[in-house]
Amino acid sequence: MATARNPAALIRPLVTPEGVDLRIKLADAGTRAAAFLLDVVIIVAAAVVVTLVVIFGLGGLGVKEAEPLFIVWMIFIFLLRNVYFIAFEAGRRAATPGKRIVGVRVASRSGAGLTIDQVIARNLMREIEVFLPLSIIAARGSAGVADTLSTIFGLVWALLFSLFLLFNRDRLRIGDLLAGTWVVETPKFKLVEDLSQRQDPIAKRFHFSPAQLDAYGIAELHKLEEVLRRDDYFAMKAVAETIGGKIGAKIEPVDSKAFLTAYYGELRAHLERKLLLGNRKADKYAR
Amino acid sequence: MTLPAGTDAIRQSLASFRQEREADWKAFEALLARVEKRAPRTLSEDELLSLPLLYRSALSSLSVARATSLDSALIAYLEALSLRGYFYLYGARRGLRQRVGDFFLRDWPAAIRDLWRETSVSVGLTVIGAIAAYWLVASDSRWYDAIIAPSLAGGRNPDSSAETLRSVLYDSGGDHFLSGFAAYLFTHNTQVAILAFALGFAFAVPSVLLILMNGCMLGALFQVYAAKGLGFELGGWLSIHGTTELFAIALAGAAGMRIGTRIAFPGELTRMAAAAQAGRVAATAMVGVMIMLLFAGLLEGIGRQTITSDATRYAIGGGMLALWIAYFYLFRMVRHGNG
């Protein structure tokens, strides 16, 4: 499972008709399992609540009046099992509540719009992937004939199908395979402040020579950005000391944030200038 | 070299790049949040028209930012925003009402027509199963128990008297839970149909077996009744809902076979593409199958118990079959323009 260690392996090109590659990131197995479990919890909770209501309704009413209630209940359970996923995924967000919570959605592998028949195909297959083996176990268990062998068989079946997505590089369920879909991450980022525009009175004191700015490249700049945004005192102190040591600048320990802010601003401007001139300095090893 | 002046100029131009476009990004984000929650009808005409413009502006900002800026948070923000916009604008292109209309007028019958080969195989298998089981039970009645589980048989077996058998056919079922029974039958049959479809994934073998088995049960039951001279009556009892239900199950099996055979023999396409194409046709057919089973459940739960005349039963069953065949194979939506 190389992908667990290397998140870049889950990035796929998605070129819009306008010609821009949006580089979608496929959801990893853990995220998808979390989303599915959330959905199962929602479905089971809804089924339990409705069943309790129906039971109390049956208790209060006579059997004659209870009939419509019974029908509504049965259809509701059926809908929960079969239509819950389809209805939500056919909607505008193309995601069930569970998927929405973990920030993923279903998309068509072709890059065109997701159609309703794709949603249906991928969700009907869930029937053999999860519900069939589990319901066989449940039915046999309630009938008192759940021997070890059939339970193991059911579990192995369910596991085999639910782990199917670990054995292909696009993380496809069998349902995804048949529908021509995959599940992609739709992260939501807020527009955060531009660190290089930060006005820091102490930072203005620092000035760096071209040689000092040449010490690092884009990869280190992004790491530095991460540290600054995290705003953790000890991390910034350690990074400031490392950078100070490398470029030969003396800094007071209390000044590490101001120093890093100043260095980040100067370094970014320096690297962006190089970028404009067609020289992308990837990291500190690049010439 | 006066580097500080140079870097300041760079900082200035990149900052103005962001300042000039920031309002557009924010506006696009706010509009997206609204249309994702509610129907696009809630937008004014101006807002609707501005959506694609703002989307393109976000895309071009992304391209510029990627080429010139090293602010990774800004690029991540623009990527996420553009992706949301892309999915919205290229995702749901048709309204729900239009999609439902298209489904009934075009997609459903077209999918069924597309599956005609598999459907005829499926129907053929049912008939073969029925004939084989009829012959087996006729030659040795012990076959009956092997084909139909005693729990399903409900007291109908080769040893039952003609009276018992007849009572099952004409017992009005009393007044208990008729529509509840219909709902139960619908959910049960649909689950079976979904299985017949989904199991087709294993190179169609389980679907074939399931359809064959279904035919066997039919044939075995028929033999028991025919031996007591009640064949015609059983036909009426079965046909009132059976024409719809058996047709639907045959279609579900056909959909499953389509998937299995396309995975086994993808032809010119890649296996993945062939599977995806077959999956979509089959899925459309399956939604239709569920609608048919809903009809069958209603006919079976209500009609079969309350209508006890053989002629009426045959008339309803035959009428339904004619209706389905006409709808799937004869009725074609007149297409305007380049349909």
From TrEMBL, chain A:
Membrane topology field: Multi-pass membrane protein
InterPro entries for this protein: RDD (IPR010432)
Coiled-coil segments: none
Domain RDD: from-to ranges: 27-180
Annotated compartments: Membrane
Pfam families: RDD
Membrane-spanning parts: 33-58, 70-90, 149-167
Keywords from the named record: Membrane, Transmembrane, Transmembrane helix
Keyword Iron: no
GO cellular component, one term: membrane
The protein, known as: RDD family protein
UniProt organism field: Mesorhizobium huakuii
Lineage per the UniProt record: Bacteria, Pseudomonadati, Pseudomonadota, Alphaproteobacteria, Hyphomicrobiales
UniProtKB/TrEMBL annotation, chain B:
Keyword field: Membrane, Transmembrane, Transmembrane helix
UniProt cross-references to Pfam families, sorted A to Z: SpoIIM (PF01944)
Originating organism: Mesorhizobium huakuii
Superkingdom, natural source: Bacteria
TM spans (from-to): 115-137, 192-213, 277-299, 311-331
Name of the protein described by the UniProt record: Stage II sporulation protein M
InterPro entries: SpoIIM-like (IPR002798)
